[in-house]
Amino acid sequence: MERVVIGLSGGVDSSVAAYLLKQQGYDVVGLFMINWHDTTGTLSGDCPWYDDRMFAELVAKRLDIPFHVVDLSKQYRHRVVDYMFSEYGKGRTPNPDVLCNREIKFDVFLQEALKLGADYVATGHYCRREVLTAPDGTPVYRLLAGSDPNKDQSYFLCQLSQEQLSKALFPIGDMLKPEVRRIAEEQKLATAKRKDSQGICFVGKVDLPVFLQQKLKARKGDIIEIPANWEGFKKAPHHTITSEEKTATYSPEYLSALAEPWHYTPQEGQKVGEHNGAHFYTIGQRKGLNVGGKPEPLFVIATDVERNIVYVGQGQEHPGLYRPALHICPKEMHWIRPDLAMKPGESRRYSLRIRYRQPLQSGTLYVTDQGGYLLFDTPQRGITAGQFASWYDGEELIGSGVIDR
Q1: Of 87, 42, 80, 79, which Cα lies nearest the Cα of 282?
Q2: If we measure between CA atoms, which residue out of 132, 113, 84, 89 comes closest to residue 387?
Q3: What span, in angstroms and rounded, lies between the C-alpha atoms of 11 and 52?
């Protein structure tokens, strides 16, 4: 009998995943991860990890499966949280959930599971895995979107490798969330009515500036408003792609120009307020600016951490929020399907995503010696350095990379 070690998180998804694995005849073992002890910046009312552990243990008892606890907080701090602090300090916005899956759940946790004799590790992610056979007889693992369009979590796994996928199982990937809740209630699992977790993976919901101030100092600086009719918007090569251009070949220089972020100077706008540190803000952010009295809400359109300036613009349609392309450094290009990896000079049409829950966008991936360029058919709102861009062929996630600019 094959053994599956499932990460029991104390939530309903992993609980039902464990139940389904047992029904399928696997030897199921529950393993709960402690990844965070510090409560600095955690919002009141958010359940700390010991509540999660209690629920996970209740589920394991109900399902009559062994239950183990492992403390991975040192590795989590080193591999995920320190990376977060470093990226925010550079004025970038990381995605800790993607890092957590690559570095913790399918690496450190996987090693702990193997110590327990695991053949596979399982999670409660809403995504699917398929196995193909290559011409030479070797298995090829496909990562597919979850069947529930409202819960598809494949994006969070966009950095996994073939080796990691070879050991992974996603038991609820072909189910809808209401069905998962129904099974949990039918089986009288303690997590049946428990709310889904939110916030940073394993840390929970946090007041981000307070959380980041553990390492990043507050520094007063200016908030500068850039008008929507700023001259720079008219001069830059930022446009919507026509049908004829979708298959066009562009020079690396032109692609680089398209992917260049907007650059402003304080003289080109007007000071409208002050902030406590440009590194606490991200593009597209609306809350936390504390500047009122404008006809439309203000949104962050750029940050300059060196000069400690936050640039803002009025309204959701401000031109500074939109860009047609982004760049990924060569070393950050990751292919879940290495057999489909592109070489410099190649381009391919894909469906693209730059954040979780964003509807897939049409566009083209161009690979050059300078890395990858994603050129969208229509300009995208809130392209943010440090986040992950991913590319899909139909429902299959093919690859991803950290947005450089």
Answers
A1: 87
A2: 84
A3: 7
Quote the Cα angle for 372-373-379, to 5°: 155
Q: Which of 47, 127, 158, 201 is catalytic?
A: 201
Neighbours of 27 (CB within 10 A): 16
Asked if 186 and 167 touch (Cβ cutoff 8 Å), the reply is: no
Q: What is the pLDDT of residues 224-263, one digit of tens each?
A: 999 999 988 877 665 566 666 666 678 889 899 899 999 9
3-state SS, residue 264: coil
Q: Distance (Å, rounded) from C-alpha 189 to C-alpha 94?
A: 35
Class of domain 217-402: mainly beta
Backbone angles phi, psi at 278, to 5 degrees: -60, -25
The end-to-end CA distance of the chain, in Å, is 49
Where in the chain do CATH 2.40.30.10 domains reside?
A: 217-402
Distance CA 54, CA 34 (A): 12
CATH 3.40.50.620 domain extents, the chain: 3-210
Angstrom distance (rounded) from CA 405 to CA 403: 6
Q: Residue 325 is encoded by which pair of tokens?
A: 């392309």
Beta-sheet pairing, 347-353 with 388-393:
antiparallel
- Report the alpha-carbon distance of residue 54 to residue 257 in Å, rounded: 53
Q: Which residue spans within 114-201 are E strands per DSSP?
A: 120-122, 127-133, 139-145, 168-169
CATH fold label, 3-210: Rossmann fold (3.40.50)
DSSP H or E stretch at residue 186: helix 177-186
| CA 281/CA 186 separation, integer angstroms | 44
Active site residue 100: yes
Q: What is the pLDDT of residues 337-376, one digit of tens each?
A: 999 999 999 999 999 999 988 999 999 999 999 999 999 9
The answer to whether 62 and 189 are in contact (CB under 8 A) is yes
Of the residues 47, 100, 127, 329, only one is catalytic, namely: 100
18, with CB counted inside 10 A (0-12, 13-18, 19+), is buried
pTM equals: 0.90
Structure tokens at 249: 């070949």
Q: 256's torsion region: left (phi>0), alpha (psi -120 to 50) or beta? A: alpha
For residue 383, report the phi and psi dihedrals to the nearest 5 degrees.
-65, 125
CB 43 within 8 A of CB 205: yes
CA nearest neighbour of 317 among 303, 302, 297: 297
